Amino acid sequence: MPGDMPSGTTGISRNYSSIKVISHRPSIRSPFEAGYVQTRSKWTTAKREFAISWKSMTAQSHASLLYFFETTCSGASSFIWHDPTANSGSGVTREVIFLDDSLEFDNVHQDYFSGSIRIREV
Amino acid sequence: MALSLSSAAIVEKNKLTSSGAWIILLKVVFPDLTTIRLARNTEDVVWPSTGGNTYTAFPFEIDDAQEEGSGAHSILNIRVGNVTRTIQTYMEQTGNAGGVGSDVDLYVVHSDHLDLTTAEIHETFVVTSSFADSKWAVFELSARNQVNVIFPQYRFMKNFCRWSFRDYGCGYSGATSYTTCNKTLSDCRLRGNVRYFGGFPGIPEGRTYVDTD
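ok -> C-alpha cells follow
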C-alpha cells in the first residue's frame, strides 16, 4: 500500500499557491479530405496530472517534502495524495508518482521556499 | 485467411466518433505453464466480462510485423515493460529458457463489448528468441517451426524411453529421491520403475521401427 504524502500540520497540501490540473485522455483522430474527423478513445480511463506550486512554503514543510521525496518514496514509488481540488471535498485521494527526477525550490525570505512539483496518477 | 469481424465490431468501426477503445490483450504461457495476462490499457480489463480472466494493465508495445520474400516466417517483436524486472523474473525461472518456446496469444477486443467471448482478432505465436534490458523485455514472435515438430509422434527405440521423467507415461512416484533420468533401461531399473519403461528392449539391434498409422 503506498504511503501518504505529508499533509495537514506541515502545510504542504494546504498552503499551496496554485494547482494546475491537466487531464490526459488520448484519442486517435483520422482527418478525412471531406472535412470530417473520425475519432475514438485510445484508453478506457483518463489520467490526471497536477502541477502544485508554492510561493512561501515554510522551512519545516520544505524539509518534510524533501525527506518524503528523497527517502520515503525514493522519487519513484507511488504515494497517496489528498486532492484539495476535488469538488467533493477533502475525502478524495489519488495514487500518484512524482513526474520529475528532481525538485527545485528557491529559498526566499530566509525561512520560506518557493517552487513547484509535478505529480501524475499512476 | 480473410478476417471476420463481429457485427458489433463493424458498427464500432464505422462510427464517426466512439468513446470505446480497442484494447490489445496479451497472454503468455511460459514453458513451465506459468501464465501472465496483460492489457495495453490504463486500467485492468476482465475479458470476457462474465467469468473471464483479468488482464492487468501493463505497458507493452507491438512493433510492425516483418515479412520476407525468401520464404522465412514473418516475425513480430513485442516489447513488455521490464522496469521492475518482473517479466525478466518469469523468463529466468528454471525451465523457461528465457521465454523461448512460450505460447503467446494476442487478442484485440473492444471496451464496450467485453461481454463477447470471441475476440475480434486473435493471433497465436510462439516465442523464437528473447532478451531483456533495464527497460524492456523483448520477445520475437513467429509461427511454430514445423521442422522442429517431432514426426511421427511416436518412435519405437530399443533403449530410449519415450516418456518425460515423472509425466503421465513415466509414472515415477518419487519413492526414491531421483529428479532426472537419462531415459535408458538401466537408469529406469535404478529407479525401480522398469514396468513403465517407454522403450522397446525386444527390438533387434541397429534398427528403428516407425509406426506409420
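Chain A has a mean pLDDT of 84.
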